[in-house]
Amino acid sequence: MSMENKQIGWKQTLTDQVIWVLRSLILGAVIGPLCYLLSSAVGWTQSFRSSHSWIIFFLPAGALFIMWLYNAVNPMLRESSGTTMDIINWNIRKRTNPTENPDAPQRSISPWLAPVIFLSTFISQLCGASTGKEGAGVQIGTSISSLFSRIEQKVFHFSRSGDMGIWLCIGSGSAFGALFRAPVAGTLFGIMVASPSIARFDAMLPCLTGSITAVFLSSMLGIGTPSIAGIKVLPWNIGYAVAALALGIIAGLLARLFFVCGRWARKAASHLMPNPYVRASVCGAILLACFAGEFLIAGDLEYCGLSVSLLNDSRPWSFAIKLVLTAITMAAGFTGGEVVPTMVIGAAAFRTLGLIIPIPLPVLAVFGAIGMLSGTTNLPLVCFALGLEVFGFQNAEYLFIICVMSFIVSGRDSIYPNQIKN
Fold first, then answer.
1. For residues 366 and 247, what is the distance between their CA atoms, to the nearest angstrom?
2. What is the pLDDT of residue 9?
3. Residues 269-314: tens digit of each pLDDT
4. How far is CA 85 from CA 70, 205, 416, in A?
5. Of 30, 258, 265, 397, which sees the most CB atoms within 10 A?
6. Calpha distance 155→287 (Å, rounded)
7. Nearest to residue 380, comparing CAs of 344, 409, 337?
8. For residues 313 and 228, what is the distance between their CA atoms, to the nearest angstrom?
9. Per-residue burial over 235-255, b = 16 or more CB atoms within 10 Å of its CB, e = otherwise
10. Nearest residue to 322 (alpha-carbon basis) of 346, 289, 292
11. Which region among 9-23, 200-214, 296-310 has the lowest average model confidence (pLDDT)?
12. The model's pTM
């Protein structure tokens, strides 16, 4: 290649990066406040439900309405997470194997996804379904980024092969980072979520820019994040290292149990109740019965919604109850995501291990929350960064061991469909 061609190539690369940085600044500036709005809405539902416990009686009606909403707008919206992965991975194959000429995904991300997932998540949390909010936030991010891409194409008539994949990387990573106030984890999430073993490094700078922008704005607005009090620093020695290996294996097995319970609940519900409206109503009624029983026995609704209190205080059986309720919630069709539920289940389970393992409970809670998340997402590096940014840099070596072991033991299943695993 001649010096002139090299100079032209260098200038084109610089120009492309500058354009993507400008795009990601705008996208992050929109997604950050939207994530704050989602988080605030979910927080309001927690407060309302705590003082108006009768709202849980609307669980069957809420599940029925969400099922109707998706079917009325577009039933394929439920497949948006998988569609996002397909589009990003198609772009990866186009870049890495130009001669392969893979078929383009037949579906796109609808701009209707953002309002539908926001409303359905609000209703899910208001009624008390055992679900999260980060999955909804990521889908809002991808919906907004897809909309921006379409506007750019129609208004400026500027689009190239691979652009949509980068747009979706930025949107998903910015939303994930904003919801946790974790820009590094958000960046890694954006470039790795669709293909954990083939990161989109060409999207790293725009993902970082969008994630930092979204985190800055959501933090400035006052978005809340999970916290665990009383975390202590463990000394580095062989005993704790072996314990971390064992805890990582346990986290991976727990992730497998989560997948088995969720898959069984969905299959059983679909087999016994083929009609989606009947399935939503009945599963919602089962959830209502479970929560009503909890209220009569314990006098609270601790397992409703996010249940983040279990990160700091749980009973030996809390993780099993939360796992079962989350599986029923997913079978009923409630939305919001599984990130926070898996973190809560992992933290509660590891706090139970504190009965036999001489490690402080807050440290075990961090290990369990991040370890199980690593196993359920197939994203050990993302989860490691998330653990450091959210819970602090104490015990980083042990946390990394746990994330890696959980990822290995958990297998190929993931809460994010259509990931490329190889």
1. 11
2. 59
3. 999 999 999 999 999 999 999 999 998 988 889 999 999 999 999 9
4. 20, 20, 8
5. 258
6. 47
7. 409
8. 10
9. eeeeebeebbeebbbbbbbbb
10. 346
11. 9-23
12. 0.93
pLDDT number for residue 17: 87
Q: Residue 27 has which token pair?
A: 């996208």
CB-based contacts of 155, cutoff 8 Å, min separation 6 = none
- Whose structure tokens read 């600044």? 25
Same fold, 3-221 and 238-410: yes
pLDDT digits (tens, 9 = 90+) for 109-125: 888 999 999 999 999 99
Which tokens is 376 given? Answer: 């359920």
- Please identify, in words, the CATH class of the domain defined by 3-221: mainly alpha
- Band (pLDDT 50/70/90 cuts) for residue 195 is confident
Evaluate the CA torsion angle 132, 134, 135, 141 in order and state its sign: positive
Environment class of residue 231 by beta-carbon count within 10 Å: exposed (0-12), middle (13-18) or buried (19+)? middle
- Residue of 401, 383, 395 whose CA lies nearest to 185: 383
**Cα(372)–Cα(343) distance, rounded to whole angstroms?**
6
Phi, psi of 261 (to 5 degrees): -65, -45
The domain spans of the chain are 3-221, 238-410
Alpha carbon distance 139, 337 (integer Å) = 10
**Total residue length of the chain:** 422
**Whole-number Å distance between alpha carbons of 21 and 265:** 43
Q: What is the DSSP letter of 422?
A: -
Residue 37, burial from CB neighbour count under 10 angstroms (0-12, 13-18, 19+):
middle
* Helix 204-221 × helix 3-51 angle, to 10°: 30
Q: Give the separation between CA 312 and CA 86, rounded to whole angstroms.
A: 38
Question: What pLDDT does 202 receive?
Answer: 85
How far is 306 from 135, CA to CA, in rounded Å? 12
- Tokens 């379409």 sit on residue: 150
- Please compute the mean of the pLDDT values over residues 369-383 and round it to a whole number: 97
Q: How far is CA 143 from CA 110, 304, 369, in A?
A: 6, 28, 28
Q: Which amino acid is at 213?
A: T
Domain boundaries 238-410, CATH class: mainly alpha
Residue 255: is its pLDDT beyond 60? yes
The mean predicted confidence, pLDDT, of the chain is: 91
List % helix, strand, coil for the chain (3-state, nearest 5). 75, 0, 25
